[in-house]
Amino acid sequence: MNGETIHHFMFVSSFTEYTVVHRANVIKLDPAIPPSRACLLVCGVSTGVGAAWRSASVERGSTVAIFGLGSIGLAVAEGARLCGAARIIGIDVNPDKFALSKKFGVTDFIDSTSCIEKSVSQTINEMTDGEADYCFECVGRASLVEEAYACCRKGWGKTIVVGVDRPGTLLKFTSTEVLHSGKCIMGSLFGGLKPKSDIPILVKKYMDKELELDKFVTHEVGFEDINKAFDLLHQGKSLRCVIWM
């Protein structure tokens, strides 16, 4: 603009009044869904729900472990709940999140800061009398991916990487461990969703009161108060802010 580069995040110019996009990136939605709820399906909620629904294909009656209970982790819990998981274990450094996470289907909580004599993965293995069927890393730390893999059920378990770590970060697994454990590890970009077909399905699930989007919104603010929204997020007082232009 006027000779200056305008920067944006992840190639998404969310706050522009007019945007030119390729038709492949446009999805027509049911006009009955409020924009303040439809916007949640652009990334955060859809990524978490999709990770459980599409990437992992969580089966009914299974056990799920989620590392990190931010909005993405809670969306994974919501997706696992929709898929019929019998047990959903949430792991976080903030014990206050347990009460909130129950609304999203979390049945058990581990405060990772209290795991001193045993690792988080050892604690989960004891809780599940084996391992969890599906483990999700939603923080973006290689050490947590390794912990998630360590408590993923041998033979058929899946470890799903959802969190974004620093570029160049490496994971440490021995080839013997990968071969003999018989479990898999995979990344989940945008929850493994196909936007054209899957986003309308999620919209319908919301309209049918299956997918509970309302509980993801803690504050709604006008665009002129965008800095207030970021302050709420930094203070941990907001799960997700919806910003109106």
From TrEMBL:
Signal peptide: none
Keyword terms, alphabetized: Metal-binding, Zinc
Cofactor names: Zn(2+)
Protein name listed in UniProt: Alcohol dehydrogenase-like 7
Species assigned in the record: Salvia divinorum (Maria pastora)
Pfam families the record matches: ADH_zinc_N (PF00107)
Source organism superkingdom: Eukaryota
Gene3D superfamilies xrefs: Medium-chain alcohol dehydrogenases, catalytic domain (3.90.180.10), NAD(P)-binding Rossmann-like Domain (3.40.50.720)
GO molecular function: metal ion binding
